[in-house]
Specification:
Blueprint lengths: L3 E6 L7 H11 L5 E6 L5 H9 L5 E4 L4 H5 L4 E2 L1 H6 L4 E5 L2 E5 L2 H12 L3 H4 L2 E5 L3 H12 L4 E6 L2 H11 L3 E5 L3 H6 L3 E4 L23 E4 L8 H8 L3 E3 L2 H16 L7 H12 L1
Parallel strand pairs: 1-2, 1-3, 4-6, 7-8, 7-10, 8-9, 10-11, 11-12
Antiparallel strand pairs: 3-5, 5-6
This protein binds 2'-monophosphoadenosine-5'-diphosphate.
The site of 2'-monophosphoadenosine-5'-diphosphate (ATR) has 15 residues, from helix 7.
Family: Belongs to the shikimate dehydrogenase family.
Function: Involved in the biosynthesis of the chorismate, which leads to the biosynthesis of aromatic amino acids. Catalyzes the reversible NADPH linked reduction of 3-dehydroshikimate (DHSA) to yield shikimate (SA).
Subunit structure: Homodimer.
């Protein structure tokens, strides 16, 4: 049987992972498949059993199962264990293993789109305190960013996140965001604000230092109001599409044995899909 992989989630119809993996399968002439699987929480244990039985090479995992799968596999990579969440599963020597490639996807996109970011980011501000914020905070701390301000609507959630990561992470309420921005060379939005159909992200960017980088992980639309505002201020901008592309690389390599490349052609294909 040719190798099969998939993405699981609930809902799943919106997922663009099949477009990415099918592009790479075709590019490398691999007779494999990559499917969308609508898996509810109730159906998750049966799907995990299918994986263990070898019905799939592996899968990507999206909302709302990233935490649940981390608790059901045999082995987690250190980053998946640290975050308590996984998005990439595979069977290796009979053991079900899981990684969290959101961190690498987040950082690889930032490194590629804004190579000089680190020199300017002694401190950073992350908006949001959910799973995507944890991945961003983890990556930034690993890369030696001295202070990460976490600004969230619910300040309790920001405080919990800060407690999990230690004193370099400082929680702040939304109305204090200006203080956080004033010293930050990097601003990252991990909330859903600005996504099409969601409220806009209303933020005064004027406290950000000149030369700062603004990274929005929202990619529908590609040019979010936050990025448009940053561009108008002549700040460096990073959109979220690259994170989606880069987080897909390790899974494809594990399942199909080839490390794929994030090409401009693939990015353009996704842009056309989003804008079409
Ligand atoms: P993910 O795991 O994708 O990061 P999540 O855990 O649902 O998703 O987190 C979504 C983030 O967007 C949270 O930080 C949330 O703020 P709260 O923790 O206060 O809920 C933020 N968010 C979503 N809608 C928002 C809104 N209308 N205003 C402000 N923040 C919002």
């Amino acid at each position: 049987m040719s190798p099969r992989a998939c993405v699981i989630g609930d809902p799943i119809a919106h997922s663009r992972s099949p477009l990415i993996h099918r592009y790479w399968l075709a590019q490398h002439d691999i007779a494999g498949s990559y499917e969308r699987q609508h898996i509810t929480a109730a159906a998750l244990p049966a799907f995990i059993a299918e994986l263990r039985a070898g019905g799939w090479r592996g899968c990507n995992v999206t909302v709302p199962h990233k935490g649940a799968v981390a608790a059901q596999v045999d082995e987690l990579t250190p980053v998946a264990a640290r975050l308590g969440a996984a998005n990439t599963l595979w069977l290796e020597e009979g053991r079900l293993r899981a990684d969290n490639t959101d961190v690498a996807g987040f950082m690889d996109n930032l490194d590629q789109a804004a190579p000089g970011w680190r020199a300017r980011a002694g401190a950073a501000t992350v908006l949001g305190a959910g799973g995507a914020a944890r991945a961003a905070v983890h990556g930034l701390l690993e890369r030696g960013v001295g202070t990460v301000h976490v600004v969230n609507r619910s300040v309790e959630r920001a405080t919990q996140l800060a407690q999990a990561f230690g004193p370099r992470v400082r929680p702040a309420a939304w109305d204090k965001v200006g203080n956080a921005l004033a010293g930050s060379g990097l601003l990252v939005n991990t909330t859903s604000l600005g996504m099409s159909g969601q409220p806009s992200l209303a933020l005064d960017l004027s406290p950000l230092p000149a030369g700062a980088t603004v990274y929005d992980i929202v990619y529908v639309p590609l040019e979010t109001p936050l990025l448009a505002q940053a561009r108008a201020r002549d700040l460096e901008v990073v959109d979220g599409l690259g994170m989606l592309l880069h987080q897909a690389v390790p899974g494809f390599e594990r399942w199909f044995g080839v490390r794929p490349e994030v090409t401009k052609e693939l990015r353009d294909l996704l842009v056309a899909d989003i804008e079409g």
